[in-house]
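User: I'm new to structure prediction. If I give you an amino acid sequence, what do you actually give back? Let's try with this one:
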Amino acid sequence: MVIKKDTMKNANNRSVFQTIINKGPISRNQVSQELGLNKVTVSNIINDLMKESYITSIGEGQSTTSGGRRPELVQLNASFGFVVNLNVTNDQIEIMSNQFDGRTLEYNVLQTKTRTLQQLYQNIAAAIKDLPSFKTMNGLCGISIAIPGYVERGNIIDSPFRAVGNFNLQTALQDEFDVPVIIENASNLSVVFEQDFSQQELVNIISLTVGKKIGAGILINRQLYKGYFGRAGEVGQMIFTDDGQSTPLAQLKPIEEEWSEEKVLARLAGVLGKNFTLNDMAREYQNQNPEVTKILDDFCYHLSLIVSHLIISFDPQMIFFSSEIINELPDLLRVIQLNLSYMPLVPPLVFSKDVHFSALLGGCSLVIHHVLHMENIRLILHH
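Assistant: Good question. You get back a string of structure tokens that encode the predicted 3D arrangement of the chain. For your 383 residues, that looks like this:
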């Protein structure tokens, strides 16, 4: 079931719904005071939202100090339905199901070798069909997919998965499940997560995701910035040289081919053995193992180059780091800050609120906004 657009057709309806989602449980009188709308208008909108089961009453709140009737409290109906969010790579599919307030219902990982978009579709469809209804009113309401690659208006322009013929993953899933499907770059979804799962007012932020690839999700004036072809933020494709030579650009390697997290872990395996853990890495770094220290300092240096360009280009309010290595070794973030100390103004460099699930939860937020017809309206979700 999809929400009727008519329900959200005017600004008052959307403002009342937004206030209930972000500040509920809340009374009608509190909504009226918050928005400066008269009580009759607010009450009529709330009645319509309750009739459509978008919000629910949780009973009576406390009466005012002057006494009188205790107010009815309303909040978003989190059990209106559920959304399924997937983060896909060549060798695994993460599957997270969430209710409408963002809270997670179930999380699974499917190990698979996927080479084509058709195979990806088959794996995703089978996984979704195996999910329960989670005792929600309307069952599955939307799907989001995080991929490593370029996406333009739902069309996958570049990814690790080959397309055979004119196969369109978004269309195939929409036809199969009759719900909206959003496909987006994983780094872009990570920055959506940092904004929408936070009480803090974030306007211009960047999320730097470091894994097999290096990507930046960019939020400008609360809106996701993707560029003309959807390639904005592919910072791992930056090229640098410090050899003083005019080397042809085509001969230079993108920075992520040498300094992605995957490449750094491979370097560390050459020192610590292939079965080393991140805890082993942290211990050796803290014990000042010279080889480990050199690798990680070089890693920080190259990330600092990327961050310096992001600061100059976008002047962000804050930069979030989503990296397993930095999450395990927080001291590395201080190394990056020191590397950037030559700059007159460096925004706060902070850890992601959830390095493991940021892309999944960002997808959850986008698809909930879409299903509720609340695009470009700030909704605070929970995790």
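You can read the tokens as a compact description of the fold. Here is one thing that stands out. The mean pLDDT is 93.
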